Amino acid sequence: MTNPTEHALPANSMVESREGDFGCTVMDLRKLMELRSTDAIDQINAHYGGVMSLCNRLRTDPVEGLSGNPADLEKRKQVFGQNFIPPKKPKTFLELVWEALQDVTLIILEIAAIISLVLSFYRPPGEENKQCGLPVSSPEDEGEAEAGWIEGAAILFSVIIVVLVTAFNDWSKEKQFRGLQNRIEKEQKFSVIRNGHIIQLPVAEIVVGDIAQIKYGDLLPADGILIQGNDLKIDESSLTGESDHVRKSLERDPMLLSGTHVMEGSGRMVVTAVGINSQTGIIFTLLGANEGEEEEKKKKGKKQGVPENRNKAKTQDGVALEIQPLNSQEGIDNEEKEKKAAKLPKKEKSVLQGKLTRLAVQIGKAGLIMSAITVLILILYFVIDNFVIHRRPWLSECTPIYIQYFVKFFIIGITVLVVAVPEGLPLAVTISLAYSVKKMMKDNNLVRHLDACETMGNATAICSDKTGTLTMNRMTVVQAYIGDTHYHQIPSPDALVPKVLDLIVNGISINSAYTSKILPPEKEGGLPRQVGNKTECALLGFVTDLKQDYHAVRNEVPEEKLYKVYTFNSVRKSMSTVIEKPSGGYRMYSKGASEIILRKCNRILDKKGDVMPFKNKDRDEMVRTVIEPMASEGLRTICIAYRDFSDGEPPWDNENEILTELTCVAVVGIEDPVRPEVPEAIAKCKRAGITVRMVTGDNINTARAIATKCGIVTPGDDFLCLEGKEFNRLIRNEKGEVEQEKLDKIWPKLRVLARSSPTDKHTLVKGIIDSTVGEQRQVVAVTGDGTNDGPALKKADVGFAMGIAGTDVAKEASDIILTDDNFTSIVKAVMWGRNVYDSISKFLQFQLTVNVVAVIVAFTGACITQDSPLKAVQMLWVNLIMDTFASLALATEPPTESLLKRRPYGRNKPLISRTMMKNILGHAVYQLSVIFFLIFAGEKFFDIDSGRKAPLHSPPSQHYTIIFNTFVLMQLFNEINSRKIHGERNVFAGIFRNLIFCSVVLGTFISQILIVEFGGKPFSCTKLTLSQWFWCLFIGIGELLWGQVISTIPTQSLKFLKEAGHGTTKEEITKDAEGLDEIDHAEMELRRGQILWFRGLNRIQTQIDVINTFQTGASFKGVLKRQTMGQHLDVKHVPSSSYVTVAPVTSPPTTSVPAAVSSPTLGNQSGQSIP
């Protein structure tokens, strides 16, 4: 596998001297990258004379890379383009305004306002006609009648303000989101070789001709051709829809495509296409061209999840490797969705959204009914009063006047509706989330999906990795077992036999990724920097501690000379590298988890470096005396071994045969200290009612020791620590299927899952989420850093990826990226999440008090006095403008530590608790009493003219101005009451920490003074005297005192109070709908019916087949085929509580058939016997 570098070496100098054209054009390379496997190899060989010649043409050196000369890099960018795909154009402000105008309530308001405007300019001839039942207008009323247009205009004006606020909010959210995306993109760096040095380069800086280092977990940033690879496997599903991993090698298929994930192995590639010329870029350009279609696709895309698309792609295209991504429409859909993933809701509606939607719908319906009744009563009253009691005839010249009256009634009805609908609610949610997300950035949480922020506040369980999250991820070897001796400190090199020392140094230096290395410290006296895999860095540090130089070994055996590499992956839990020995034959160095490697050893080196047999009893002895003591101190144990092959070439692809008969050289204990701040953070989680579980690939003793240090397990607790194997044995039935009932017995007590595979992690997360054991469904957060953590991160309610140690795949699958990889940041995320939830509850408490009071006042006022005491414009000021600012004030309350002293709310806990309902109704009673007193007795109290039953265009009265002013001031002081929702007495606590709140309250108060004093006709206001102002203010401050009275009433005694805004009751239906944007319950019921039918049919067929098989002893293939199909169906839609566990039968027929036959309810765990 060595490279003929001598042709390519002059490449750098050639670039300098000759800035001429490259040996191929953009189009040539684009065409080349569209080919796959053998076609591509034939084309490379025929047209370019092999990969090395292609490097020559691109003026690059396969070993040294580009020179990094700025002029050359600039030229490459001009010729081949930049590695940047221009994002889709954001919506313009006007488009967002248009979208905001689509709101139904606003449309109704606009229509009402326009009708009102038109009619106010229309002067009917019968104006003076007494017979129309109108009072004869006095001369000064004439001027007022001229101003009839103001009401309509003012409604329109407030609608415009609301639309602009909403549009601006959407626009800033979009801008913020793009900023976030850019930040994520800027942070993404890739290893590139320039001038012989490996450097981390921002993805956008990569140019054609660069030599890129690729390794397990990378997301490829550009298209390229493999120059050298070790055991490389790529997941190309994002482009082809084919989920099988594709093996890449120089001989079979060297084509690497941007946007695909490296699942195994490592290697180097020469970059051949970047930006819009790469395969992903081409797809994006196509998407850009079909803007209209894309909108359609988006709508469809919301309805069908990505997995269905992938399956379609599989069945349509059939052959995985020959697919041209350009022609695969499904691939395009997929790719678009992958990239836009952050914009589309990832799972079912978030907990909060679900509750809010239900609440808004309930309130909306109530408002609609109230407004309809109001309009009906007003019209009936008018008609009966005029045509029945006064027996007036309907005159044609009076018709326009009557219509004007009806329009006025209609406007009053609309006012009631507007007041009932909490317009400020969506705004409050958005502001609260946007504010939190911005602040969370400072707390090292980079939020990719907005709803993850508030879901985190409901978290009941966190499944955390150990390495790097709970520990410092700064590994050092502290103990070693070499040649029958257990060294509790690093031995001196003289204590070791030269042969053994040589094996240790070579075994570590060669059998580690060459990207792992130890660099000198950044600061004087600091610790050396560890770059790459931390475990490998610890081993390299061990080599340095033994006064040896790993660089020298690597220079002697460069990466090109490695004959074969079995890279580390989660299944192997080991890594092996094969080199050719100078004397002929091969030597393989292996390292990995000590239990796993020792099982494969049959020899061991003694004190003198001689090979001794290593039997099972020796292994057990070693585990007992060496490995367990190390593990119980929290050390991770790694075994180093080797094997020589002398006769001929062994079958390298048969891994089981190769990785046996090893000779053990040493076992080392690696320490990874617990982060000092973690025990405190875990204690906070426990206080907050959150269970922390550790899921790690480490040995169980190590895991238990670390869990005890962190405080995840405390002596005397009733808890379980399990290994992956034991965990699977306990939760699976004899057919190897996971049984939810068995899992439900395990997870509540499970605290540590050691030696776990990514599948175990996924199984555990899915099991906890699907469980119905507790009173409510668990909300699970998961941390992950590896490529293999992707499924668990996606499945979890909130997935946290590690910003430093995390692979691109993990980040892609996550909701929140921890920029400092620290567990304490997760606790901060919980705090912010709870804060969002509380902020919205605070706003609801405030908003609903306003709504209840305003609706009742408008309704009764209209029915009794034929006119709403609060005019349409005044209502809009209270409901739209004031509430918008109130949402800003209450949604930006900073979080406090006290949030972590209560248990999580959970999914089914209503948004409006009993205490909140007590506050809402209590304050409503106070406000209604005051307002009705003012309406019916206010004129006597203040000694002014009554404003009741005023004619159509009469001027504003002081009476109704006082009512409006008092109403607003009561809301203003109630806003301060709303800062607390759990019945706390001190509503001023921490008020000065929130400057926004203070400025909003002050600003609203000043605006109110201006409206009353100078608002005039548009706001139906007239000036008030100072004493009237003081009375209004006094009544407003009474709100604060009344709040103290309410908080003394114990909530428990008010059993009649109902809660509102419950979570989704049809829990299982929601689970079926994972991946859908909006959930249509009727459709879900229908779909469940179909599935039950399929399952019934499937079960009957399976049982018939089982009986037939039992009778004839025939093959099981037919049964399997149908069972896997049934399984596929189930996985998609069926709620877990009634899983049909029909899975491939792995045990031999003789054992499984009698079991199947004897059970009349095969696989049905819901307890319903199916005949």
UniProtKB/TrEMBL annotation:
Q: Which reaction does it catalyse?
A: Ca(2+)(in) + ATP + H2O = Ca(2+)(out) + ADP + phosphate + H(+)
Polar residues bias spans: 1162-1171
Keyword annotations of the record: ATP-binding, Calcium, Calcium transport, Calmodulin-binding, Cell membrane, Cell projection, Cilium, Flagellum, Ion transport, Magnesium, Membrane, Metal-binding, Nucleotide-binding, Phosphoprotein, Translocase, Transmembrane, Transmembrane helix, Transport
Low complexity: bias regions = 1146-1161
Describe its partners and assembly state.
Interacts with PDZD11. Interacts with SLC35G1 and STIM1. Interacts with calmodulin.
According to its UniProt record, which protein family does this protein belong to?
Belongs to the cation transport ATPase (P-type) (TC 3.A.3) family. Type IIB subfamily.
Q: Which InterPro entries match?
A: ATP_Ca_trans_C, ATPase_P-typ_cation-transptr_C, ATPase_P-typ_cation-transptr_N, ATPase_P-typ_cyto_dom_N, ATPase_P-typ_P_site, ATPase_P-typ_TM_dom_sf, ATPase_P-typ_transduc_dom_A_sf, ATPase_P-type_domA
Where found, per UniProt?
Cell projection, Cilium, Flagellum membrane; Membrane
Function (record text): Catalyzes the hydrolysis of ATP coupled with the transport of calcium.
Q: Name one GO biological process term.
A: regulation of cytosolic calcium ion concentration
Asked whether the UniProt record includes Manganese among its keywords, one would answer no
From the Swiss-Prot or TrEMBL record, give the protein name. Answer: Calcium-transporting ATPase
Gene name as annotated: ATP2B4
